[in-house]
Amino acid sequence: MDSFYKTLIVDDEESVSNLIVSLFSKYGRSCETAKDGIEALEKFKKHSFDSAVIDIVMPHMDGITLTRELVNLYPNLPIMVMTGHADAHSAELAIAAGALEFIKKPFSINEFILRFDKMMHDHEGKETLRALSLTDELTNLYNRRRFFVLAEQYLKVAIRAKKASLLLYIDMDDLKWINDHWGHNEGDQALIALASILKKTFRESDIIARIGGDEFVVLLESTHENDEILMIRLYENIRDYNAKVPEDYKLSVSVGAAYFDPKFPISIDELLSKGDGLMYAQKRKRRKKESRLGVRNGQEEFST
């Protein structure tokens, strides 16, 4: 049994929870317990778990309902369901609710280890394949498809936790101009450089993705003071890159900052549309300024 997993054990029978905790501890595995579904949901709000072991029959919220709730909030969470019921109908309900594994009480320690390890290894194999299909090949950021999956999950959690979020819609300025004057390979290098700057600027917990040719998005928790600091850091990191790298062009971005209020939630499509509109407003303002100065990307305009 791998030791780096963190599991939530949800069972109102203390003897069963203690048995599983003791078993996991033996293998150096981290875990916590909850006595019912409501307590489990509260713990998921405060802590990060990579799996759950859930009993079906519990007070306040049964295991099937809890499984549905967790799968809705965390679609890729591997869940094993336990029950004292011997009928096949319980197993069918658990799998239909989104559980990946099912075990009947009483169970032996060996059976539990085999079933749990199989569930986690199967899950890891699927996650590896999913990562390959949901990552942008050029920048290694999340791609558009992956962003939508993660963003929808992120906003559901934000609504439940009543936490505001911020979506930054970032467009790399003048990619076509760079491609036309310096070649598509140089354009690719500029995109890779911007992706690296975004990863340096934002936290690992923030969702960073490339959703189009020159379009990037970042979804993060919002506090007005922190939002301003992050924007300053982003522009400073771009400025530092331009100062250190002797390119024939300058990296620059147009950014639209769209706020998500959990009291008045909107869909991820609406949030993107809002950010896109704000980004283009900034881009139009920049182009008007460049037109007055007769420059493009920090250079004198080429005649055509």
Give an overview of the whole structure.
Helices cover 53% and strands 18% of the residues. α2 (37-46) runs parallel beside α3 (63-73) and α8 (184-201) crosses α9. The chain folds into two domains: 6-132, Response regulator (Rossmann fold, 3-Layer(aba) Sandwich), CATH 3.40.50; 144-300, Alpha-Beta Plaits, CATH 3.30.70. Mean pLDDT is 87; it is low at 299-304. It has helices spanning 14-26, 37-46, 63-73, 88-97, 109-133, 144-161, 175-182, 184-201, 224-244, 268-293, and strands at residues 6-10, 30-34, 51-55, 79-83, 101-104, 165-172, 207-210, 215-221, 253-260, 295-296, 299-300. Strands 2-1-3-4-5 form a five-stranded parallel sheet, sandwiched between helices. It is built from ten helices and eleven strands. It is elongated. With 304 residues, it is an alpha/beta fold.
Q: What's the layout of helices and strands?
A:
Elements: E1 6-10, H1 14-26, E2 30-34, H2 37-46, E3 51-55, H3 63-73, E4 79-83, H4 88-97, E5 101-104, H5 109-133, H6 144-161, E6 165-172, H7 175-182, H8 184-201, E7 207-210, E8 215-221, H9 224-244, E9 253-260, H10 268-293, E10 295-296, E11 299-300
